[in-house]
Amino acid sequence: VNGSKYRLQIGEQISVSDGNTVWTYVPDLNEIQITNYDTANAMFEPRDLFSLYKDDYLYQLVKESTLHGRPVWIIDLTPYDKDQPVFKIRLFVDKEQNEILRFVVFEKSGVRYVFDIESFAGDVPLPDAFFTFDVKSYPTAEVVDLR
């Protein structure tokens, strides 16, 4: 993440934004979807993940537990804005390192997204090219431009 730019890979799916455009490669469909970067309809902006609780969410310590053998705090975030599609985000925070190990996003529609963070490095200098998507790298993929 760098401001509104981000690169996110979940399994084989890749989502990249240069702050204006979002490219999402969906391997199951062999499809590249291109959309405008739209903060109004986003669950949250990736850059805000580690500070959501400060302004937009009420936070509550649920309990202490373990995750992958590590002691964690489980913290629930609920949005002040009840019109959001998300009604809760559950964080699993390493008690010793103060790092998010997992977060679960609960939507009102019943959809639940689970994100496990395998590694985290802060303040890493990244070139602008890291936040662009080369469509030519996927020559057989169908490009669906939804802008």
Q: What does this protein structure show overall?
A:
It is globular and about 50 Å long. The protein contains one helix and ten strands, in the order E-E-E-E-H-E-E-E-E-E-E. Helices cover 3% and strands 47% of the residues. It has one helix at residues 52-55, and strands at residues 6-10, 13-17, 21-26, 31-36, 57-67, 70-79, 86-94, 100-107, 112-116, 142-145. The protein has 147 residues and is mainly β. The strands form two sheets. The protein has a five-stranded mixed β-sheet with strand order 1-2-3-4-10, with no helix packed on it. The protein has a five-stranded antiparallel β-sheet with strand order 5-6-7-8-9.
Helix and strand composition category: mainly beta
* Total of helices: 1
Radius of gyration from the CA trace?
17 Å
Q: Describe the largest sheet.
A: 5 strands, mixed
Per DSSP, what share of the residues sits in E-state strands of 2 or more residues? over 45%
Q: What coarse outline follows from CA principal-axis ratios?
A: globular
Number of strands: 10
Helix content: under 10%
**Side-by-side strand order of the widest sheet:** 1-2-3-4-10
Low-confidence stretches: none
Could you give the order of the helices and strands? EEEEHEEEEEE
Integer average pLDDT: 87
What is the terminal-to-terminal distance? 22 Å
